[in-house]
Amino acid sequence: MNEIIGLILISVGLAFDLLGCLGLIRLPDVYNRLQAATKCVTLGTCSILFGTFLVVGVTTPGIKALLCLFFLVLTTPVSAHALARGAHRSGIKLWEGSVVDQYAEDKEGEA
């Protein structure tokens, strides 16, 4: 039963990663592309890693998959935020269809 659930999670994760890759190609600006990349890593890759854990069980590869999952969940949002803030502060413009610019009020560090 665990193998079937694990294979389903791996399949769902592959689908999320594929859609995230398509989002990297199709979306208009760096901020939207960053959102697509963050979602595909968080949902897709973590689903693949958890499915791998369910398939192989509590073995060395299974524990490594859980550790990778844990570190991805911790680091992906932080790195996405840092990249978005760095892109905004370096002057990369938002897509003209963007509705909200929450970094516009951020004047910290500007001369």
Short description:
This protein is mainly α and 111 residues long. Helix content is 74%, strand content 0%. It has three helices and no strands.
Report on this structure.
By secondary structure, the protein is mostly helical. It has one domain. Helices cover 74% and strands 0% of the residues. It has 3 helices and no strands. The radius of gyration is 18 Å and the shape is elongated.
For this entry, give a set of tags.
111 residues, mainly alpha, 74% helix
User: pLDDT average, as an integer?
Assistant: 86
Number of strands: 0
Uncertain segments: none
Distance between the termini: 60 Å
Tell me the number of helical segments per DSSP (H or I, 4 or more residues long): 3
**Using only CA atoms, what is the Rg?**
18 Å
Q: Look at the helices and sheets and give the structural class.
A: mainly alpha
- The topology string of helices and strands comes to HHH
What does the largest sheet look like?
Answer: none
**Shape annotation:** elongated
List the helices and strands and how they pair.
Layout: H1 2-26, H2 30-56, H3 60-89
Helix pairs in contact: 1-2, 2-3
